[in-house]
Amino acid sequence: MEPLLGPEAAAFCPGWQALLLWVSALSCSVSSPAPSSPSLVPRVRTSYNFGRTFLGLDKCNACIGTSICKKFFKEEIRFDNWLASHLELPLDYLPSYPANYSDDSKTWRPVEILRLVSKHQNEISDRRICASAAASRTCSIERVLRKTGRFQKWLQAKRLTPDLVQGLPSPLLRCPSQRLLDRVVRRYAEVADAGSIFMDHFTDRDQLRLLYTLAVNTHPILLQIFPGAEGWPLPKYLGSCGRFLVSTSTSPLQESYGAPPDQAADLAYQLLGVLESLRNNDLNYFLYFTHVDAAMFGIFNNGHLFIRDASALGVIDKQEGTQTATMAEENKDIFSCLVAGCQTELPACDTIPEKQSLVLVCRQVLPQLLQGKFPSPVQEQIDALLLQCGEGARPDPEVLGAASQLKDILRLLRTCDPRFAYRYPDCKYNDKF
Fold it and tell me: At what angle do helices 261-279 and 356-364 cross, to 10 degrees?
């Protein structure tokens, strides 16, 4: 079945075939997960055009050449389980979309299409870009960004260096080392010949797409430079384009706040383990959260907990050292202000304590997960350790020690059964699991 392009679809992207995403006529809850049998294709489908504001940059033009764009056109990403009518909101206002993804059009698996910035932020960003060029309310986003001094410097550069990202507001770039930036370029999956630390093989659009992503939301970049396949607690990156990302589907941690005690203990144990791996790893990077909430963590259907939203992660290179990013006026430009105020202050890297992520999680996430789950005196011990772990005024060793004691208690409260498929049946034969 070929999509029918209406006048509106043809108008928003002259000279290029409009990007149409199929939406199932079957309606379910917005927050419901993708079906377990995604190979079942609805008999009746209607098309929905996400339009210019969803894709970003000059909208569908920003997608051309990316692997994810090809999958959209080949219908290897199909959408269903949407119900926005009762919210009285257009579909492009939703923060995420359940979908089905295929590598061969035969075998399907559930994925999430995530907005990198909200609809409201998109509109603010577009107005700021146009205003920076003294243009009217609407303008060619890509054309304006191409003319900026920062992008012209990118075009002349053979390598991504710290001076090229100065002034960008992302926590990832707060303390950029050359080793980290080389990893960004070498692992960037949206170019034909990934693997080199030099940008000679990047087209102009490749460079603009990377710069734009670094300025708007670095979550897709973190999924590429610290992939789950190498043991990092992040979901698999499947592609991104403009202002959206496709990644492996997970359910948010807050959906497990009412979980049974053994499951709550397992999730809390995993979460503390995730934070430990961010502090200490073979690559000698220190990853830390600038803020947290339960929606930032997700759970796969096998019970494994991962970081669902990495946009608030900062990275400090303990091996090479870091160059603290500054937000001095001379470093600020339109890329500094796309999704946040231009007055953002970035603290020095040496002021980030090792305990930072633990304090945030022990204060804002774990209490809701573990509250009132266990009999006395275990619950009192857990509550006391959470208080110690969440006190930012305590020295690092005390916070780390409280977290370690809490993890030891939680390990004993876990059970071994098929609900925890990520470690079953190994847990039957090895206490490590």
Answer: 160
| Contact between 235 and 222 (Cβ < 8 Å) | no
Please provide the DSSP assignment of 140-185 as one string.
Answer: -HHHHHHTSHHHHHHHH-SB--HHHHTT---GGGSS--HHHHHHHH
**Domain 251-428 belongs to what architecture?**
Orthogonal Bundle (1.10)
Q: What is the DSSP letter of 121?
A: H
Q: Are 216 and 190 in contact (CB under 8 A)?
A: no
Query: What amino acid occupies position 234?
Result: L
Distance CA 170, CA 114 (A): 18
- What dihedral angle (degrees, nearest 10) is formed by the CA atoms of 297, 259, 368, 115? 30
**How far, in Å, are 9, 51, 55, 77, 410 from residue 12 at the CA level?**
6, 7, 11, 22, 54
Phi first, then psi: what are they for 298, rounded to 5°? -130, 165
Kindly give the confidence (pLDDT) of every residue in the chain, 433 residues in length, as a single tens digit, with 9 standing for 90 and above.
333 333 333 222 323 232 333 322 222 222 333 334 434 433 333 333 443 444 444 444 555 556 676 676 666 777 654 464 444 445 556 777 778 888 887 888 888 888 888 777 877 888 888 888 887 667 888 888 999 999 999 999 999 999 999 989 889 998 899 999 999 999 998 887 778 999 999 999 889 989 989 998 999 999 999 999 999 999 999 888 767 788 888 889 999 999 999 999 999 999 999 999 999 999 999 999 999 999 999 999 999 999 999 999 999 999 987 665 554 556 788 898 888 766 666 677 888 999 999 999 999 999 999 999 999 999 999 999 999 999 999 999 999 999 999 999 999 999 999 999 999 999 999 888 7
- How would you classify residue 413: left for phi > 0, otherwise alpha for psi between -120 and 50, otherwise beta? alpha
Residue 329, number of CB atoms within 10 A of its CB? 8
Three-state DSSP at 329 gives helix
- What are the beta bridge partners of residue 285? 317
**Strand bridging mode 251-252 / 285-289:** unpaired
Question: Position 137: which residue type?
Answer: R
Cβ burial 113-126 (10 Å sphere, 16+ → b, else e): bbbbbebebbeebb
Domain boundaries, the chain: 251-428
